[in-house]
Amino acid sequence: MAIRQVVKIGDDVLRKTSRPVDVLNRRILTLLDDMAETMYAKDGVGLAAPQVGVLRRAICVDVGDENGLFQLINPEIVKAEGEQEGMEGCLSIPKRHGIVKRPARVTVRATTRAGKPVEIEAEGLLAVAFCHEIDHLDGTMYIDKQEREVTDEELAEMQKENKE
Ligand code: NI
Q: Which neighbouring-strand residues pair with 19?
């Protein structure tokens, strides 16, 4: 496994549509493992393949809950319900955060790294993470959808509240 370089905003690759993964070969498995290692190394809760410069439909997500790590191929949101609003950041957009509206609950259909089809029901932060990462596969970033930017002062305030 290896930590890969994360592509930053301004690079065209982040704005392109990724191609589906048709064969689950060693190269894709290595990609998925490198993505997970990179996400953990950078303290992220999700990463999409275009963020490491690979235009394939693959994501990893780990929001630190009991579900652990998801490594998914060809993920799609097949159902979305309700609404939630929260703060998001992105490893490709360093030091910025925004308030984004997302569905409260989603159902994601995908293939696992073992090649097994799965349907995952997610809510809260996990639902947000799936929406955020799947958006990357179509060249969409949270800043395209954000209600507004979060200022450094607000961020400092929120971090303070979280510690208290
Ligand atoms: Ni992102």
A: 56
Burial class (CB in 10 A: 0-12, 13-18, 19+), 139: middle
Instruction: In whole angstroms, give the CA distance from residue 14 to residue 109.
Output: 23
pLDDT digits (tens, 9 = 90+) for 41-66: 999 999 999 999 999 999 999 999 99
CA neighbor of 156 nearest in space, from 85, 95, 92: 95
Catalytic residue among 133, 147, 157, 164: 133
Centre of ligand 1 from the C-alpha of residue 134, in Å? 9
Alpha helix ranges (H) inside 5-83? 26-41
What pTM, to 2 d.p., does this model score? 0.95
How far out from the chain centre does Cα 114 lie? 20
Q: How far is it, in rounded angstroms, from Cα 57 to Cα 131?
A: 13
Active site residue 133: yes
